[in-house]
Amino acid sequence: MQATEVSEELARRVVDAAARALDVTLSPAEAMIQASAREGVDYQANLAMGLGKRLGRAPREVAALLAGHLHLDGLTEPPEIAGPGFLNFVLNRTWLEHRVAAIDDDPRLGVATTANPRRIALDYSSPNVAKEMHVGHLRSTVIGDALARLLRFAGHEVLPHNHLGDWGTPFGMLIEHLLDEGREDGRIEDLNAFYQAARRKFDADEAFAARARERVVLLQGGDAATLVTWRRLVDESTRHFNEVYALLGITLADADIHGESFYNPYLGALVADLEAAGLTEPSDGAVCVFPTGFHNREGDRLPLIVRKRDGGYGYAATDLATLRYWTAERGATDLLYVVGTPQAQHFAMVFAVCRDAGWLTTQRAGHVGFGSVLGADGKTMRTRAGGTVKLADLLTEAVAHAASVVAERSELSAEAQREVARAVGIGAVKYADLSGDRERDYVFAWDRMLAREGNTSVYLQYANARIRSLLARAGEPEPGAPVVLDDPAERALALALLRFGEAVHSATTSCSPHKLCAYLYETAVVFSRFYERCPVLTAPTDRLRASRLRLAALTSRTLVLGLSLLGIDAPARL
Ligand code: ARG
Fold first, then answer.
1. Mean pLDDT within 9-26
2. Where is the Arginyl tRNA synthetase N-terminal domain positioned along the sequence (predicted)?
3. Is 260 a pocket residue for ligand 1 (Cβ < 6 Å)?
């Protein structure tokens, strides 16, 4: 099928009409088409007001001219002109019936792939070695993975990379501590406790601190024995991270790990090239770059430190090398970094330096920031003992909570119940993270995220399971059965199903999964209204029964596909 979205199709026709009626050339965006919130109106075009101003004509007159020159070919009824000059469109019933049937025949449910596929380096998750992943990393992991799925579905090539914090001065003390403990071959069960013990020794024991500093020099110098111990720490941490990824159903693999250490061999040349380009300035023994346009409150220029006084390199130099690697060596056309909002300025400065150095030219780079996860008290989430909350513990708890919700009324086997509890519990944590605007903080609250009503994954999973059980009773719908939209509730559902592509598209292009969540929730609500008003199994005619079954089945497929793009499972039975 032709998988253009309705808004695009309308925009194209409005642009054509503008050319014919007014001799102006507009881009599709300038047609200003949007889904309408007005009762009885499906879409509206808001261009006549601005166009009237530009052409010095009355907006309503412009709207009437546009309406008179539109070639609608049965897509909508002739538009009405409302208020100051809105063009209000109502989709033609027959057209809608055919389009919904065509979407139902399409495995992609009418969602077009991009005409302009890009190669997108996507930095996400990126936890720190020798520390447990905490809820802050949850957001990067969950949002990043949803974006990876959405971008791939759109037809882009995604190059995921996990920028592990696996290098730098703390490794001196961590390696010394590991050697002292003599457990080179054993497991480290509690990474946080291990890290804290190393830090305590470092602060209290001057001899240990001196050894730790020497160890950093050995590590950076590539000493073989030191690297072996360092590797043990990285592998041990990766094992913990992989446990969390498996529990969460995250698509990152070991091959995607490109930690800070990976870029170490590139740093010398990087600084030399910046120096040769005349971009560096010495500052207090360090080498700095001052990208234009970055100042502190006092008006002083802000530096990006590319080589520290002691000759070592830090976070900023590594990020410059990272960007250069993904563009120059891996051919990325786009770079996206899913990292907390506090690092916004860091990335803005990295991008600026790379532009000045000529490493970022036609490529697009963007920081996909996000807010914090807060506890019930509105402060950064902590355990009762005041420590940071470990992600693995939190997820185990989520599944346990979900198990108690699911077990109440389920006639499933114990094994199936476990699987469902996992889908519900993990889904709830992920959905809570994805369903709000990512730039905002959110409060982590079990009862809210596991609620069966409201914009939660549990609500969507139940809605889907109810449809699956209806289909199990009725039998799958006949593939070719005509879609009949007699009742307003049938029409409303058809319209919602038709908008899946628009929702997926806007969530993808704005890196905002919450837009897809909002769409799925609305669609499930519209379905439940349909289901109340329009009996399916006992529909008055066979024709209506078949059509309603098709609408129900398509709703289920829409929810399942939509949730899967967010990385959330939708079990057929709950
Ligand atoms: N490891 C860092 C942290 O936990 C995040 C790294 C993000 N990615 C990057 N390229 N800087 O804060």
1. 95
2. 8-91
3. no
Closest C-alpha residue for ligand 1 atom 5: 126
Dist CA 156 CA 159 (whole Å):
10
Choosing from 122, 135, 163 the residue with most ligand 1 atoms within 8 A of its CB, the one to mutate for a pocket test is: 163
pLDDT at residue 216 is higher than 60: yes
Distance between Cα 337 and ligand 1 center (Å): 9
pTM: 0.94
- Please name the amino acid found at residue 196: Q
The DSSP element (H or E) to which 455 belongs, if any, is none
Ligand 1: atom nearest CA of 163 is 8
Task: Tell me which long-range contacts 186-195 makes (C-beta under 8 A, separation of at least 24).
Answer: 187/236, 188/236, 190/132, 191/130, 191/131, 191/132, 191/236, 191/237, 191/240, 192/131, 192/132, 192/387, 192/388, 192/390, 194/130, 195/130, 195/131, 195/170
Closest residue (by CA) to atom 3 of ligand 1?
A: 127
- Find the 512 Cα to ligand 1 centroid distance in Å: 20
Q: Return the best residue to mutate from 137, 343, 347, 388 for the ligand 1 pocket (most ligand atoms within 8 A of CB).
A: 343
Cβ density class 298-314: b for 16+ within 10 Å, e for less: eeeeebbbbbeeeebbb
Angle formed at CA 573 by CA 567 and CA 574, multiple of 5 degrees: 85
Q: Residue 27 C-alpha to ligand 1 middle, in angstroms?
A: 39
Q: Is the CB of 530 under 6 A from ligand 1?
A: no
- Cα of 362 vs its chain's centroid, Å: 24
165: CA distance to ligand 1 center in Å? 7
59-84 tens-digit pLDDT: 999 999 999 999 999 999 999 999 99
CATH number assigned to the domain covering 6-91: 3.30.1360.70
Proportion of the chain above pLDDT 70, given as a percent: 97
- Domain spanning 457-565, CATH architecture: Orthogonal Bundle (1.10)
Asked whether 403 and 373 are in contact (CB, 8 A), the reply is no
For residue 237, which of 392, 28, 22, 438 has the smallest C-alpha distance? 392
* 367 Cβ below 6 A of ligand 1: no
Distance in Å, CA 33 to ligand 1 centroid: 39
Q: Determine the distance separating the centroid of ligand 1 and the alpha carbon of 353, expressed in angstroms.
A: 18
The architecture (CATH level 2) of 259-368 comes to 3-Layer(aba) Sandwich (3.40)
DSSP state of 327: I
Distance, in Å, from the CA atom of 225 to the CA atom of 223, rounded to the nearest integer, reads 6
Q: How confident is the model at residue 28 (pLDDT cuts 50, 70, 90)?
A: very high
The rounded Å distance from CA 187 to ligand 1 centre is 25
CA-CA-CA-CA dihedral for 29, 32, 35, 40, to nearest 10: -150
Q: Is the predicted ipTM greater than 0.90, yes or no? A: yes
Q: Assess whether pLDDT exceeds 70 at residue 184.
A: no
**Cα separation, 286 vs 307, whole angstroms:** 6
β pairing state of 373-374 and 442-443: parallel
User: Which DSSP helix (H) or strand (E) runs through 288?
Assistant: strand 286-289
